[in-house]
Amino acid sequence: MSLAYFLHILQLLFLEQGHIVNMTKTERLATLKRQIERLESRAARRDERMRYYANQQVVTLLLGFSISVGGLLIFRPLGVLCILAAIIYFIYCRRKQVAFSDSVLKYRHLLQFYETQVARATLDWEHIPPVPPQRDQSDHPFENDLDISGEYSLHHLLNTACSHEGTLHLRKWLLNREPDLKTIQQRQTLVKELIPQTSFRNKLAFHSLYTTRYMQELFDARKLLLWLAQDEIPLPARYKMIVPCVLTSILLITLLLYVFGMLPVIAPILSALVSLSWSLFTLRDRLTLFEDAVFIRQSFEQLGDIFGFLERYSYREGSQLQQLCQPFTVSKEHKPSHLLNHLRRLAQMATFSRDQVGALFLNAFLPWDAYIANQLAHSKREAVEYLPQWLAVWFELEALCSLANFGYLNPEYTLPELLSEEETGEEPLLQGSELGHPLLDDAEKVTNDVTFASMGNVMLITGSNMAGKSTFLRTMGLNLCLAYAGAPVNARMLRTSLFEVYCCIRVVDSVTDGYSYFYAEVRRLRQLLSRLESKPRLPLFFLIDEIFKGTNNRERLIGSHAYIYALAGQRCVGAISTHDLELVSLEEELPQIGNYHFREHVIHGKMSFDYRLRSGSCPTTNALKIMRIEGLPINWPGSSHTLAQLEEG
């Protein structure tokens, strides 16, 4: 089982998948599941062959030993031939077992990739690889509110990166507070180009998965970059190269002269002692060199396969992908494969330093470590010039492939249209059709349309408990984050200006800082106004859920009125949800206010929601209905008439 044969199988698989670009999500899922079934069957056959050759080795040892002993006793040459035949067959079986074992391992990683694809498409969170935990930015205006990072988050769903830095790239794009139109458009172009290129994306993901198979965590380039930033390789100084060469020359000359009887034996002995002394003097450098060599070999063995794929891939001429990957192909003299293979060979040569006694004598007679250190220093200078650029391209590719894979698995999603400042005067600031929540299952998802016609517009959303107000706010926020990252959005159409997103949806109190929930909410709302007063480069898009819900009805109503007055007509747009039906009268006071609501229905004594956004204020409430359905008391003596009126309202 050669690697070329296995890659041929992969090529057939990926080409086959390339034909399903125009399929619906359901058809795509069915095709992925068929791929998994075929791969499981092929992996099982190769696993069976691997066990067969493992058993053959045992049989060869036992049977070969018996036949060889019998042959030696009957006719010695026959016994020798039997031993040779057994050794040859054992070696053959061993090689076949290793080949099939490697093939099985590759198939398992390919299976893991496809199974993860199905999990991402069906929101099977337990089978989507977790992202490394990152410290929350407590002052971030929407990270926690919109479930951007952490478990069961947008970042968790999208991330396909196998490197720590690629994961951070994606998270940074999703958390960007001040989007740039040119940057977003460049990413959109690459994502649009990458979505149908399943062969490229899947092979890159497979190479990354396979080369990091023995790592417990994601590939982290920080240690490698720190190694590049070090001043020098051990033993790089000029005198440390010259001295062992001179000592080796003197030793060889004295030995030669001694052989021809021109010098006494003491001369080569003294030369050898001087060389050994120098070897002892540089022992610490050799040990450090060995440690560096082991690290270099491990790092470049992981990177070599990935960079080799990016170097050899046939890019479409003039494509954005070709321009992005140009550092891998621009120079024939400085290809990643050339540098990485050279460093790998040097690292293997440096492993002789592991045996301190052997290395001591080896370096006494040859300038072995000095030569390796000199070559490493030369290669390191080349690596410093090119490796950071190669790594940066790989990290960006991983983040871009995460976005493209998200679009591929959700073919009904669309790339949004971003409006420039010149276009915002002619078009609505934001217009979305069939906007959906990307973290909800398709069977549970309800889409809605939304429009913000002009600056200063405020959408005031009323509605019953559980009717969908908070979900709708997050739907708008999540799709804006996707749009500004350069990703497809969960919408039939989204046309939007650039905004700075600001949320007050999930505010938590802080026991350590002594903040109550209400005070934490007030601080967040104050930060929003302060940001607005600072006249940021972009207008604000705010999302506020249940404004001032941490205080009593009277003060909440007063505060809400004042706060909405402060926002309306400013350089911002946004939506505020509330239970206070008294606030709907603001539509008559302020032309920028628009009333919207979500409605519930009671069918056969059970609450039912359609999660559809409607114009106007909510005509019903459901708190008492929910309490009554769940068996809580809602009456006391003499109160039935009032409660009946409340329920009717």
CATH topology of the largest domain: Rossmann fold
| CATH architecture field of the largest domain | 3-Layer(aba) Sandwich
CATH superfamily of the largest domain, please? P-loop containing nucleotide triphosphate hydrolases
CATH class of the largest domain: Alpha Beta
Number-wise, the strands total 12
Q: Residue ranges: pLDDT <50 for 5 or more in a row?
A: 1-6, 12-20, 641-649
Strand-residue proportion: 5-15%
* Alpha-carbon distance between the two ends: 75 Å
Main beta-sheet annotation: 6 strands, mixed
Broad shape: elongated
Task: Report the structural category.
Answer: alpha/beta
Question: How many helices does DSSP assign?
Answer: 21
DSSP helix fraction: 55-70%
How are the strands of the biggest sheet laid out side by side? 6-7-8-4-9-12
Kindly state the mean pLDDT as a whole number? 80
Please provide a brief summary of the model:
Helix content is 58%, strand content 9%. It has 649 residues and is an alpha/beta fold.
What does this structure look like?
- The chain is of the alpha/beta class.
- It folds into three domains: 3-127; 222-401, no CATH class; 417-618, Rossmann fold, CATH 3.40.50.300.
- The chain contains 21 helices and twelve strands.
- The chain has helices at 3-18, 25-74, 76-122, 154-158, 164-174, 181-194, 198-211, 222-229, 238-259, 266-281, 283-312, 320-324, 336-350, 356-365, 368-409, 469-485, 517-533, 553-567, 586-589, 623-629, 640-648, and strands at 417-418, 430-435, 448-452, 458-463, 493-496, 500-504, 540-544, 572-578, 593-598, 600-603, 606-609, 614-615.
- It has a six-stranded mixed sheet with strand order 6-7-8-4-9-12, with helices on both faces. The chain has a four-stranded mixed sheet with strand order 1-5-2-3.
- Helix 7 (198-211) runs antiparallel to helix 11.
- The protein is elongated.
- Residues 1-6, 12-20 and 641-649 have low confidence and may be disordered.
